[in-house]
Amino acid sequence: MTRGIGWYVHHQGAGHLQRARAVAAALPRPCTLIGTLAAFDTNGLDALDLPDDRPLGGSDFDGRDGEAERPEALHYAPLNHPGVRTRMARIAEWVERTDPALIVVDVSVEVALLARLLSVPTLVVRLAGTRTDQPHCEAFRSATRLLAPFPEALDGAGVPDWVRAKTHYAGFLGAPAQIGAEAGDTIVVVFGRGGAGGDLADLATAARAVPDRPWHVLGPVSGSGEVPKNLHLHGWVDDVEARIARAALLVGGGGDGLVALAAGQGKRFLCLPEERAYGEQTEKAEALQRLGAAIVHPGWPAAELWPGLIRAGLALDPSVIAGLHRPSAIPDCAAMIEALVRQIGRA
């Protein structure tokens, strides 16, 4: 019997699910998606749905429970939480029943350590930034191998050598690049699901500062007021990639999804990194700037800075950021996972 693979997806949004689906489709063996999946489309996937483990009472989930008595190797281990208890029991039951070859953990320190306790090899996903706190290091130490869903050139400067040596740098794992659309003169601003969204007053100020170009904004925008004629608010759209393909300049944060789209389409990119734990966006943006792959400004720029930033962005050589995209990233990642399974004798 060919052993299958489990791919655990935590509360991180559609991007993590997208890469799980993409790589699973390229694997030569069965793959079970594991996580709290009610809000996602899992058609065509073998899925193990888990109960919600977020804090009781509806507080925001940041993956840490804030308890002083929590073991130092864990981020999130609340007591008396029925969702956590059932979640872990269901994973253990699935492992006992299926005897998986490997579990990909994207991302959870606790699930990585649970898999180790269940004697199952793991491939633990490393997000961007410098994650040298004890829980992350223990999860990395417990793993058979680590997977970075970004190019090595964008890794954090403070990442320990032993973590780098254990890491397979897969490159961007997600939707394939859409090449061939002719760029126009537009500035496309993208706000994703993970941030605070845009502010209408800030956007209006930016559009007025560069009045000779149309500004198209994708994603959530809050606030009210007069909208300049060159500013177009589209909200959530289904054709983000196509709209970005027509942009002369892409503006947005430093999340993996947007950086991957900028690289895949070879787009001149003005990166406005947002504050995230472990420097996830700021360190990636610093690497982009160091490579000459993007113009970077921390936070939303003041009105007087916009003309210069736009000129600098339009002067970028788009081949630099395009060089970060590897078309074979998904099949290469699947091949690496299959080779890992065979190396550890779990085929």
Would you tell me the structural class of the helices and strands? alpha/beta
Which strand-content bin applies to the residues?
A: 15-25%
Radius of gyration, Cα only, in angstroms? 21 Å
Shape: globular
Main beta sheet = 7 strands, parallel
Low-confidence stretches: none
How many strands in all?
15
The SSE string, one letter per element, is EHEEHEHEHEHEEEHEEEHEHEHEHHH
Could you give the distance between the termini? 9 Å
Biggest sheet: strands side by side, in what order? Answer: 3-2-1-4-5-6-7
Mean pLDDT: 93
The percent of residues in helical segments reads 25-40%
The number of helical segments is 12
What can you tell me about this protein's structure?
The chain is built from twelve helices and 15 strands. It has helices spanning 14-26, 82-98, 109-117, 134-142, 161-165, 200-209, 240-245, 256-264, 280-291, 306-314, 318-322, 329-343, and strands at 5-9, 31-35, 46-49, 102-106, 122-125, 145-148, 167-169, 186-190, 198-199, 215-218, 221-222, 231-235, 247-252, 269-271, 295-296. The longest helix is centred in the first third of the chain and has 17 residues, at 82-98. The relative contact order is 0.13. The mean pLDDT is 93.
What's the topology here?
Layout (H helix, E strand, L loop, with lengths): L4 E5 L4 H13 L4 E5 L10 E4 L32 H17 L3 E5 L2 H9 L4 E4 L8 H9 L2 E4 L12 H5 L1 E3 L16 E5 L7 E2 H10 L5 E4 L2 E2 L8 E5 L4 H6 L1 E6 L3 H9 L4 E3 L8 H12 L3 E2 L9 H9 L3 H5 L6 H15 L4
Parallel strand pairs: 1-2, 1-4, 2-3, 4-5, 5-6, 6-7, 8-10, 8-13, 9-11, 10-12, 13-14, 14-15
